[in-house]
Amino acid sequence: MTESRQPEQLVAEMRKEEQQRLAGYRERALKLYPHVCGRCGREFAGKKLRELTVHHRDHDHDNNPPDGSNWELLCLYCHDHEHTGSIQEQRHEEGPTTRPGKPTLAHSPFAALAEQLKQK
What we know:
Blueprint: H1 2-32, E1 52-56, E2 71-75, H2 76-94, H3 113-119
Antiparallel strand pairs: 1-2
């Protein structure tokens, strides 16, 4: 029984450490920067403050310098757009013929469904 608990305990410890790490740099970023989204300029206070996230400019979540130079505060929407925008740019640079058969943001799993149903 102790063997089955060890992986569960390990996962629980890892999650706790991750939450502490995340809380650490988020709290520091909130102390360093005004509570304003760096993209849309929306201000956050009170309960809405949870909608303000820390974006790592170099996309390395382990790069957390004490001066916060790798961070910017973004609202949930701008943060999501930042990450999907990077994917869109990469897809545009690679072009449609470079990655045949791989799903993309424009991929539609049901695109050929009507044609397949006609064949049956």
